[in-house]
Design brief:
Elements (H helix, E strand, L loop, with lengths): L1 H12 L3 H37 L6 H6 L9 H10 L4 H9 L15 E3 L4 E3 L40 H11 L1 H10 L20 H21 L3 H16 L7 H24 L4 H12 L7 H17 L18 H10 L1 H19 L4 H18 L3 H6 L3 H4 L4 H30 L28 E4 L5 E5 L26 E5 L2
Antiparallel strand pairs: 1-2, 3-4, 4-5
Helix pairs in contact: 2-14, 4-7, 4-8, 6-8, 7-9, 8-9, 8-10, 9-10, 9-11, 10-12, 10-18, 11-18, 12-14, 14-15
Length: 510
């Protein structure tokens, strides 16, 4: 009897079987969750260790170590001084509106758009259904400035009767800035003050350098139109010095800006070639300027540093929350980010980011034709990361931070192609001066002007060249679609962009 009572008492204190099962399952889940967290942390640590073993940067301190101070003259310091001496177009307009400047403006501003071909003001009806159409209405003097204003001038086109004196006055007011920039072009290296670099750094020298490059491009164009071609060539050299000042800066955006400024210089050179006949000495000097341009000294390093920037944002993921100032293509709310961190999926997210970034960095080792297929594959991976709510939650950060390097690489290779066709065009002009006729084929240019003819960077095959029935010639690269579209270049036929069907090249009308 006593034993029976004891058994009943034990039964009351014993956990129900179902509760034991629940407790066991919960403990297994906790252990699995902890193990999953640990395995992800271990995988991330291994990836980071592998990056360090390859000598690649992981932190911003590593990035700054790649960008040591310069002893002696600093090109960057001089260019920033030139920027500080600049008058901005907005100040130019303010002085005009205040009556401090007397400028001759077109008669019906702001109701018309300037028709450059007919040198008259005409009315246009905007076609709202055409998403590619745009009309740059001139309302202020700065709108007429080449490169700095709203008007778009074709290569080889002279500034109109209103733009020429207005540009001249603007350049006169920027004489000190131009003088400093021109004197600085002989300095070889530059380093900008980016110490203390982090994911939230405001690198305001980018916008300043763009403004200075556009000012010099406007000066070069004005010099050509006023018969000072030699002075224009010196100014083009100064534009390339701005790009050169960014050569050692390890950030991807720095290298993109550098490539863009080089592209601006090349466009200005092509304008000079179309504008009026150049002498052999002028062509040789322009060829020297183009030949010293460097487009790919630190491309892979820039992508590696971009990975550092992404990793820093994983350490501060709130920056990616809507309204946080750094948001990508997909909205992330506070609640989503909180859950993302609590569940540990942010570690899986970070691992995905590291994996895809490494894939793309490795792709940059391949020749361009092979890169395109690999980039297409990576784009498919990126689409999968962003496909559906679950994927966008699990990859909340990487879905916003990751992008295909394809577009960045295409910009670089297109400017490289532009540099090569520009050099070939200059050689064609020198051949014309020497022989009184255009070469029948590009092989005629070697060995007089090239030891070896430049090749198409997109295919590693010879550049393409043909004489135009209307006079002149076209030299071109096949461009990003790797298809020869017969030398179809912007403004060559109907003045519109053919993004799917467009070669990269230069055409001469005479």
């Amino acid at each position: 009897m006593a034993g029976s009572k004891k058994d009943k008492t034990d039964d009351r204190h014993r956990l129900p079987r179902w509760l034991k099962v629940v407790f066991t399952i919960a403990m297994v889940c906790v252990l699995l969750f902890v193990g999953w967290h640990w395995s992800l942390s271990y995988a991330i640590d291994r990836e980071i260790a592998a990056i360090r073993e390859r000598g690649e940067p992981v932190t911003f301190d590593d990035v700054l170590a790649m960008y040591p101070p310069i002893e002696g003259e600093n090109l960057a310091t001089e260019l920033l001084e030139a920027v500080e001496a600049m008058m901005r177009p907005s100040e130019f307009d303010r002085r005009y509106e205040a009556g401090e400047l007397v400028l001759k403006m077109p008669p019906n501003v702001p109701t018309g758009e300037y028709d450059l071909s007919g040198e008259s003001w005409v009315e246009f009806e905007k076609d709202e259904s055409d998403s590619n159409s745009h009309y740059d209405y001139v309302e202020t003097p700065s709108d007429l400035l080449p490169y700095l204003g709203m008007m778009e001038y074709d290569k080889g086109e002279r500034l109109c009767e209103y733009a020429l004196p207005i540009t001249g006055k603007f350049l006169e007011l920027n004489e000190e800035a131009i003088r400093i920039a021109m004197a600085a072009r002989t300095i070889e290296r530059g380093r900008y003050p980016i110490d203390g670099l982090n994911s939230k750094s405001n690198l305001d020298h980018y916008s300043k350098l763009r403004a200075l490059a556009n000012l010099l491009a406007a000066k070069a164009r004005h010099d050509m139109d006023t018969g000072h071609t030699d002075r224009a060539i010196e100014t083009i050299d100064a534009i390339t010095a701005i790009a050169r000042s960014l050569e050692d800066e390890p950030l991807l955006i720095s290298q993109l800006l550098r490539i863009g400024i080089n592209g601006l210089a090349l466009g200005t050179i092509q304008h000079a070639m179309l504008h009026s006949p150049l002498t052999d000495a002028q062509c040789a000097e322009l060829d020297r300027i183009v030949a010293r341009l460097r487009f790919d000294p630190h491309a892979r390093r820039a992508f590696q540093v971009e990975r550092v920037c992404g990793l820093a944002l994983f350490d501060d993921p709130e920056s990616l929350i809507t309204g946080g100032g750094v948001i990508g293509a997909y909205e992330i709310t506070d609640a989503q980010m909180l859950a993302h961190r609590a569940l540990g999926t942010i570690k899986l997210d970070r691992l995905t980011y590291l994996s895809v970034m490494q894939e793309q960095i490795d792709i940059t080792k391949l020749p361009m034709p092979d890169r395109l297929a690999e980039y297409d594959r990576v784009r498919g991976e990126l689409d999968t990361l962003r496909d559906g709510r679950v994927n966008r939650f699990v990859n909340a950060c990487s879905a916003n931070l990751l992008f295909s390097f394809h577009g960045t690489d295409w910009i670089k290779f297109r400017v490289i192609a532009s540099a090569r066709v520009t050099r070939i065009g200059l050689a064609v002009e020198r051949y014309r001066l020497a022989h009184g006729k255009l070469p029948e084929k590009l092989d005629d240019l070697a060995p007089a002007y090239f030891d070896k003819l430049p090749v198409d960077p997109f295919t590693n095959q010879p550049m393409l060249y043909k004489l135009r029935d209307e006079g002149g010639y076209v030299v071109w690269s096949v461009g990003r679609n790797l298809v020869d579209d017969g030398g179809l270049i912007q403004n060559e036929f109907d003045g519109r962009w053919h993004m799917a069907r467009q070669d990269a090249g230069f055409y001469q009308l005479r």
